[in-house]
Design goal:
7 helices, 217 residues, 20% strand, globular, TIM Barrel
Length: 217
């Protein structure tokens, strides 16, 4: 079971995620997010990530120059794009950097899943997330603490490796994995005591719940 803890901003929470068995830790470089870290901070956090845990750098609608600068500073294992990036754009980044590339998609309906096939051959993983609320123009592209209808994923013929995000927490991750068969789960706001402040106990509980249900499947 692959587990990503996203939006980490301190060495203590990085260590907590690794100790709990997370396979990936996410660093958000997006100024509008309460989980934003500067490139300097991200690089320092990255240096403290234990071997065997992959570092995911999250970017939103970054230009080619911004992307190159971020990759050079942080040296992530994975780049996750969480904006309006096109299949061709993410494919070019993947070819240019040689890094693993993920793309997050907000799932509003079955049409989103159909359109996701456009990313086949361009990226390494799709991350199905909840879309930002339509009524909130200033809403973040992710990390809003809301989910989507997991039934949309039932029976879907995945053409790209994938993962599940959107409103996941220690109380519902087992149900989410059971309902969707997700090979990777990604949590952020559901593991916080306040916006941007991760709770180490919630991180541990989330990882434990995800691991236990995966063993039972």
């Amino acid at each position: 079971m692959l587990i990503k803890i996203c939006g980490l901003s301190t060495p203590e929470t990085i260590a907590a995620a690794a100790d709990a068995g997370a396979s990936h830790v996410g660093l958000v470089h997006f100024a509008k997010s309460p989980r934003h870290v500067s490139l300097e901070t991200a690089a320092k956090l990255r240096s403290g990530v234990p071997d065997g845990v992959k570092v995911v750098l999250l970017l939103v609608d970054a230009s080619a120059e911004e992307t190159a600068r971020a990759v050079d500073a942080v040296r992530p294992d994975v780049i996750q794009f969480h904006g309006r990036e096109t299949p061709d754009w993410v494919g070019e980044v993947r070819s240019a950097t040689g890094l693993e590339v993920w793309k997050a998609l907000g799932v509003r309906d079955a049409g989103t899943l159909e359109r996701s096939a456009q990313y086949a051959g361009k990226i390494d993983r799709l991350l199905f997330d909840a879309p930002p609320p339509l009524s909130r123009e200033a809403a973040l592209p992710g990390g809003n603490g809301v989910g989507f209808d997991w039934n949309l994923l039932k029976g879907h013929d995945h053409t790209v490796e994938w993962g599940l995000a959107g409103g996941l927490n220690p109380d519902n991750v087992a149900e989410a994995i059971g309902a969707t068969g997700a090979p990777l789960v990604d949590a952020s706001s559901g593991l916080e005591s306040a916006p941007g402040v991760k709770d180490v106990d919630k991180i541990a509980a989330f990882c434990k719940a995800a691991r236990e249900v995966s063993k039972a499947l």
